Amino acid sequence: MNWAFRLTGWAPWVAATFVIAGLVHIISILAMPLLAPQDAFGRLAEATPLGRLVILDNGPPGKELLPFEDPATIIAVCRFDLAQGALRLRSNFDGEGLVLMSFRNRFGTAFYAMTDRGTSRGRLDVVVATRAQLDAIEAQDSEDEVPSDLRLLAQLPEGFVMLRALSPEPGQRADAAARLKMITCGAEKAPG
Predict the structure, then answer these.
(1) Neighbours of 169 (CB within 10 A)
(2) 148 within 8 A of 101, measured Cβ to Cβ
(3) How many CA atoms lie within 13 A of 127 on its CB side?
């Protein structure tokens, strides 16, 4: 009986230790993106200006701006801050090659993704905006016409669009970069 009493006396302390350790573990994992000084957005902010498409030179091995990227793609980034206006991306694609686009918030979480195959007749026209900016844009719409642009609601005011052009052969890298250079991105003035 003495042995069983001692065991049950320690059980609540052991259980509390495991619960506290689990909570600390979960909180530290969830807080890591907020506390990391060199996250992807921080590295991109140092290397790219706001509202302009920049084709990235990933750098030498071990010093990559975005590590673990596919070497068969050319990568471009357009950072945005919706406090300066809604972001608009435009381009005309010729149907050759493949361009992948992912729209991400400041923490790298994708809120929309598409390819150039998802455009209307090869024409890309995307607006990324806050709720207030979208309301202002929609107020300017004609009731008789369907908007021709794709309108995305951003979760956070800061973020980036990551674009990748496929270059399956080393000799096609210039063509892939040219497809990305055709895309314009920038802040748009508020309508009105």
Answers:
(1) 9
(2) no
(3) 20
Contacts of 140 (CB under 8 A, 6+ apart): 191, 192
For residue 79, what pLDDT is reported? 93
What fold does the segment set 40-188 form as a domain?
Immunoglobulin-like (2.60.40)
In whole angstroms, give the CA distance from residue 103 to residue 90: 14
Report which DSSP code applies to 68. Answer: T
179 by Cβ neighbours in 10 Å (0-12 / 13-18 / 19+) ranks as buried
Query: For residue 130, what pLDDT is reported?
Result: 93
**What are the Cα distances from residue 27, in Å, to 31, 42, 156?**
6, 22, 22
Contact 164, 100 (CB under 8 A): yes
pTM of structure: 0.74
CA atoms within 13 A on the CB side of 130: 13
**Is residue 81 classed as helix, strand or coil in its secondary structure?**
strand
61 to 20, 97, 172: CA distances (angstroms): 40, 27, 22
Binning pLDDT at 50, 70 and 90, where does residue 132 land? very high
Q: Which of 39-53, 125-139, 144-158, 173-187 has the lowest mean pLDDT?
A: 39-53
Closest CA to 162 of 102, 108, 113: 102
End-to-end CA distance of the chain: 83
